[in-house]
């Protein structure tokens, strides 16, 4: 404590700037979360709620995004949510805890780099500065939102990367002594969990660069000390923990993170990908605007100039630090080489893996590791310039430039952040109108998912919101799928959509939904149905499932839908319905086809067949007869591989006209 007070007294300017930044971080995380629910951030809030409600990590009735999000503040925030009952406060507190942990890790790395107290302060001032490239934060994927506020989706996983770097540096210089061995064990557990959640992210962008650094230092030193051997073993165990984590989640939950879909950059794509990465770095730091027409002398334009000055100083420091590796080789420590390795390997990986997907600007959240490593080396280089240069004017100018650019960047960023607070009035009006009706499920239909649809799920815990591009095309991406199957809920439902989307619906859906009122900003209509005519989950989704003939994944032929949504065959012989090609479950299930014989001119005793198949091989069949309204098949799926494709089908005899209504699927409880 005394050392901290003495540091503040010696260097009051960076200390006060840092204090202001920390206060702003605390304020935003504790009080502003509900005003910045971006498209993806709302997923983290909703997953926090569902994790606590279900009391499990791998959620039921949930559509995952690219990761399981376990290496984010979600798990801690779920526990805090259970105590506090406020998801925004719980998530904000969780973010602050991990920010403190990350700061401690980076402080340790700063010590390994021999940063003085003053330049540690400057580093944290730069680290906690928001870099707002634009004023459109509808989907918050920028540096500030990805690290220190909102979803903070990359805070924990990036913390793990620098934690490995710190421990590796400690082992290299001091061995596995004292608390280091306990920290090493914690890091292995963290790597395992992160790999289960996000695949090989930490392995590729953190552990691999550390291993390359280790090999380089091994070659340069040309001898093996005990500490060096232990460090090699530690890095090997880190890689093993990452691989085991990836394998474990596949075996336990049959889940694969999206890193398995990575592809190499082709020759034709390489230069576009190359320049997209550097464009992404410029966008990440807010040096160049993403939009055209911004005047240099406008308030917004001047803000970019201050960000440009700050990044220019960091780049100058980075060049000095890199130059020092060559000229002052004896003074260069292991952590410096590790940081250089992180920057180099990350950039190379991103250049040779096609991840820009045609965009002229790289998604800059993937460049945060590179940026933070560059900050550390940049501040190290600035410290060298200031501490070794006898030119007092130059020293004052450099530190003044840091001071002015950091203060100005904070001012401009927080000013524009305040302008981009989400309009909660719109969602409150929608919620108020929805509350007037006794309906637990609310559907939104439209081309694309407006952000308010994503956000209202978090605010309104009394209703379940399902969304689709049409009546049978669900749009699920990081959301609950409870009540997505019509068999899970049969009560009244609400439909909210624009007039043109309502008019595009088929008559058998429009006939069910009766107009009630305008909602939101009067561009949307609210409609009420007495039952649940929409079905967004096909096949077996629980103990009771219900599929309509128009459910997604069900194919039809030789007929058409009537005004009630039933499929009427036209007398042509052949399969009338088939699908949905979903995974084969475990256990015994009853499949019930509800149908009606409309015409049987040949007076056939068997008008068709209903069967269940796996991988196109029929495993159960029952005839359809004129006097029945439904038939039931009981199927035991034990012995069939879960990766097979489940299918049920209806075959219609020549001349017969059937009205096919629905298929009910019920699990037989043993």
**Average pLDDT level:** 90
N-to-C CA distance: 64 Å
Total of DSSP H or I helical runs spanning 4+ residues: 20
Number of strands: 20
Can you list the strand order of the major beta sheet?
4-3-2-6-8-7
Oligomer: single chain
Please give the largest β-sheet. 6 strands, mixed
What structural category characterises the helix and strand content?
Answer: alpha+beta
**Shape, please?**
elongated
Over the alpha carbons, how many angstroms does the gyration radius reach?
30 Å
The percentage helix is 40-55%
pLDDT below 50 for ≥5 consecutive residues: which ranges?
none
Labels describing this entry:
alpha+beta, 6-stranded antiparallel beta sheet, 17% strand
Question: How would you describe what is shown here?
Answer:
With 670 residues, the chain is an alpha+beta fold. It is built from 20 helices and 20 strands. The protein has helices spanning 2-10, 12-31, 41-54, 74-84, 87-112, 117-127, 143-147, 155-174, 180-198, 201-221, 226-253, 267-284, 299-327, 334-352, 368-388, 392-419, 424-434, 451-459, 499-503, 507-510; strands at 62-63, 441-445, 464-470, 473-474, 479-480, 493-498, 514-519, 524-529, 544-548, 555-556, 559-561, 567-569, 574-578, 580-583, 588-599, 608-614, 617-624, 630-636, 645-652, 657-667. The strands form 4 sheets. It has a 6-stranded mixed beta sheet with strand order 4-3-2-6-8-7. A hairpin with a 2-residue loop joins strand 3 (464-470) and strand 4. The N and C termini lie far apart (64 Å). The model has no long low-confidence stretch (mean pLDDT 90).
């Amino acid at each position: 404590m005394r050392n901290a007070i003495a540091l503040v007294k010696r260097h009051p300017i960076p200390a006060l700037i840092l204090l202001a930044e920390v206060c702003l971080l605390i304020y935003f995380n504790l009080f502003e979360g509900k005003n910045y629910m971006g498209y993806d951030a709302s997923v983290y809030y909703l997953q926090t709620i569902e994790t606590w409600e279900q009391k499990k990590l791998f959620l039921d009735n949930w559509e995952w995004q690219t990761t399981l999000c376990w290496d984010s503040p979600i798990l801690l925030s779920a526990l805090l949510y259970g105590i506090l009952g406020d998801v925004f406060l719980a998530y904000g507190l969780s973010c602050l805890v991990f920010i403190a942990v990350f700061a401690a890790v980076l402080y340790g790395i700063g010590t390994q780099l021999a940063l003085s107290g003053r330049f540690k302060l400057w580093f944290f001032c730069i680290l906690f500065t928001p870099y707002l490239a634009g004023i459109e934060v509808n989907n918050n994927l920028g540096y500030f939102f990805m690290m220190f506020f909102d979803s903070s989706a990359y805070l924990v996983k990036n913390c793990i990367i620098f934690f490995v770097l710190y421990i590796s540096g400690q082992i290299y210089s001091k061995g596995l002594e004292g608390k280091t061995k306990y920290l090493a064990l914690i890091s292995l557990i963290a790597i395992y969990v992160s790999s289960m959640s996000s695949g090989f992210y930490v392995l590729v962008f953190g552990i691999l660069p550390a291993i390359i650094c280790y090999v380089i230092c091994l070659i340069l030193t040309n001898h093996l000390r005990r500490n060096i051997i232990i460090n090699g073993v530690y890095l090997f165990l880190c890689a093993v923990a990452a691989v085991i984590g990836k394998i474990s989640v596949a075996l336990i939950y049959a889940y694969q993170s999206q890193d398995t879909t990575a592809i190499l950059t082709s020759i034709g794509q390489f230069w576009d990908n190359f320049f997209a990465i550097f464009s992404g770095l410029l966008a990440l730091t807010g040096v160049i605007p993403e939009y055209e027409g911004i005047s240099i002398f406008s308030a917004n334009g001047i803000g970019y100039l201050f960000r440009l000055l700050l990044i220019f100083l960091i780049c100058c420091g980075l060049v000095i630090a890199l130059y020092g590796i060559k000229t002052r080789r004896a003074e260069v420590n292991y952590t410096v080489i590790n940081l250089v390795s992180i920057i180099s390997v990350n950039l190379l990986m991103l250049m040779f893996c096609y991840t820009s997907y045609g965009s002229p600007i790289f998604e800059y959240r993937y460049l945060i590791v590179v940026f933070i490593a560059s900050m550390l080396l940049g501040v190290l280089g600035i410290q060298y310039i200031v501490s070794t240069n006898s030119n007092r004017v130059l020293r004052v100018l450099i530190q003044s430039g840091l001071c002015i650019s950091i203060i100005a960047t904070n001012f401009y960023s927080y000013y524009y952040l305040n302008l981009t607070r989400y309009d909660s009035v719109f969602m409150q009006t929608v919620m108020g109108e929805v509350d007037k009706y006794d309906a637990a499920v609310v559907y939104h239909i439209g081309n694309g998912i407006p952000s308010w649809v994503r956000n209202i799920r978090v605010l309104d815990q009394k209703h379940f919101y399902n969304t689709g591009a049409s009546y049978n095309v669900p749009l699920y991406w990081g959301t609950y799928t409870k009540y997505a199957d019509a068999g899970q809920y049969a009560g009244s439902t609400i439909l909210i959509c624009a007039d043109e989307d309502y008019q595009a619906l088929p008559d058998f859906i429009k006939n069910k939904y009766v107009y009630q009122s305008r909602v939101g900003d009067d561009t949307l209509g609210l409609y009420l149905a007495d039952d649940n005519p929409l079905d967004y989950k096909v096949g077996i989704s629980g103990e009771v499932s219900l599929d309509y003939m128009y459910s997604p994944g069900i194919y039809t032929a030789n007929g058409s839908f009537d005004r009630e949504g039933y499929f009427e065959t036209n007398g042509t012989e052949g399969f009338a319905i088939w699908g949905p090609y979903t995974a084969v479950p475990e256990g015994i299930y009853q499949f019930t086809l509800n149908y009606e014989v409309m015409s049987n001119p040949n007076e056939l005793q068997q008008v068709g067949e209903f069967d269940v198949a796996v991988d196109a091989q029929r495993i159960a069949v029952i005839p359809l007869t004129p006097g029945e309204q439904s038939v039931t098949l009981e199927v035991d799926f034990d012995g069939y591989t879960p990766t097979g494709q489940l299918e049920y089908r209806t075959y219609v005899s020549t001349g017969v006209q059937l009205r096919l209504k629905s298929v009910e699927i019920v699990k037989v409880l043993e």
